[in-house]
Specification:
Blueprint: E1 37-41, H1 47-55, E2 60-65, H2 68-80, E3 86-90, H3 93-100, E4 106-112, H4 130-139, E5 140-150, H5 153-166, E6 170-172, H6 185-192, E7 198-203
Parallel strand pairs: 1-2, 1-4, 2-3, 4-5
Antiparallel strand pairs: 5-7, 6-7
Bound molecules: S-adenosylmethionine.
Residues 42-44, 47, 64-67, 70, 92-93, 112-115, 184-186 line the site of S-adenosylmethionine (SAM).
């Protein structure tokens, strides 16, 4: 078994922490704490990430995804697109924001079309919970933002309620034309099926 240097070009685009039991230092993160870093939690096949990283080469992007096949797919696509500002981390999202990322290191957190867990008894599994929002607040830099999209009205209402009750981040307006924000593959699919897309944006020390 080879635990040495990556043997395929795209593997260098996978961020592999040297230690999974401490916060990484900024120097260990893409952009080394100097360039704004954005993370996409549950990045799937990376359609959003590849597009936005191509569009904003002055920023760094980190996809977080638990499925190895998807992580590899994103890394391969980024390699083919010649992107130098995108890496992927194969890890669970809550663990990543709770334990791996240091304080105030992220300029934007994207959470796009997470599993809505529609059954009431499963609502506790939804990613947007006060603990995870506290972690998001911790890793966001001053005036950093949390952006959320879903096609599930119930989950959207849930997010508004959790965010209102925990009061950790400030709600911000978000018109489609406000800034460049590519659609994800899921979003395109849902729109073709005529489903409505809900979005919400929150800021740290903003408002
Ligand atoms: C419904 S897909 C959405 C993918 C992408 N955000 C999009 O909009 O196209 C959800 C993705 O999140 C990943 N995921 C779900 N729970 C996760 C977790 N706890 N940690 C990391 N990834 C997770 C899944 O493997 C899947 O790729």
């Amino acid at each position: 078994m080879n635990f040495g240097a990556p043997n395929r070009a795209y593997e260098r685009l996978e961020l592999v922490p040297s230690d999974y039991f401490r916060h990484l230092t900024r120097a260990e993160l893409p952009g080394e704490g100097i360039v704004p870093l954005e993370i996409d939690l549950g990045c799937g096949d990376g359609s959003f990430l590849i597009d936005i990283a191509s569009h904003l080469p002055e920023r760094q992007f980190l996809g977080v995804e638990r499925l190895l096949g998807r992580v590899r797919k994103v890394a391969r696509k980024a390699e083919r697109a010649g992107l130098a500002n995108l890496q992927v981390l194969r890890l669970e999202s809550a663990y990543t924001i709770g334990w791996i990322l240091p304080d105030a290191c992220i300029s934007r957190v994207h959470l796009l079309f997470p599993d809505p867990w529609p059954k009431k008894r499963h609502h506790k599994n939804r990613f947007v919970q006060p603990d995870n929002i506290a972690s998001i607040k911790r890793i966001l830099s001053d005036r950093g933002e949390f952006l959320f999209k879903t096609d599930h009205e119930g989950y959207f209402e849930w997010v508004k309620e959790v965010m209102h009750e925990c009061k950790l981040l400030t709600p911000l307006g978000w018109e489609e034309s406000d800034f460049y924000y590519p659609e994800t593959d899921f979003e395109r699919q849902w729109k073709e099926e005529g489903r409505k897309i809900y979005r919400a944006r929150f800021g740290k020390n903003l408002g």
